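User: I'm putting together notes for a lab meeting next week and I want to include a structural view of one of the chains we've been expressing. I don't have a solved structure, so I'd like a prediction I can at least talk through. The sequence is below, exactly as it appears in our construct file.
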Amino acid sequence: MKIKLVLIFYCLAMFIPLCIVPSHVQALEKNGLLASPVSGQVGMYSYRVKDLLGYTKIDNRGREVKKIVIQRDAQGRIVKKTHFDHNGQVKLEIIYRFDSRDRLVKKIKQTSQGHPLKINQYSYNVRKNMCTHVTLDGYKTLLKTHYYYFNQNGERIRKTTYNAENQLIRTQLYIFDGSGRRIKDYTLSSEGSISKITQYQYDGKGDMKWIQYFDKNFKLKGKSLISMGNSQRPEKKNRFDATGELKYSIRYDY
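Assistant: Thanks for the context. Below is the predicted structure for the 254-residue chain, given as structure tokens.
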């Protein structure tokens, strides 16, 4: 049954072509705030709200272990993220660069001295949709290439990742419900078998509430609880292990 499920999802995603998608739809950031779609903007998630100033990681003892400060330009675009360690020292910086069409074309991860550690370059097709993402090391040696695919609603439904030898190493499938809410992610190995699953649950208002993480055997590995503030913006994300013990929290600063 598991194998059949994988093949069904994989085959469906393989044959859905690149479609028109708003130019602001970008790859989700690892530590970004993933929340429910903003009304009227398909594919736009509210973690990209213009007034988000950064976020702070707090361990299960209440200690701040990492802080990220966001810097924006006059158009409200994120142009720099500065990562601070628990002592308040700059650990690294991420620089964002845009082209004349307001598209993200490069993201540079660098040391506090400005030495590149990793470079991400983004390219777009003739419809102005992001279609390729190349990852290089600090010496501009190719590490990985990612390809993105979208459905007719502008929702990203598939991402494939290849290594420097152009060998497929991972496929990610994104499942949405009839209301356009992202409800499940599947990560597949190069052979097409499931390696992990992420599941999203929403409250009665349509705001994302829980994120659950499962391994390849559908065993729960952990979960995250998103708390909303009075202004209906995500305020905190608590990460728990499989037993329900708090591992850390992410506090979002506005």
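A couple of points you could mention at the meeting. The helical segments are 2-14. The two ends are 46 Å apart (CA to CA).

User: Perfect, that's what I needed.
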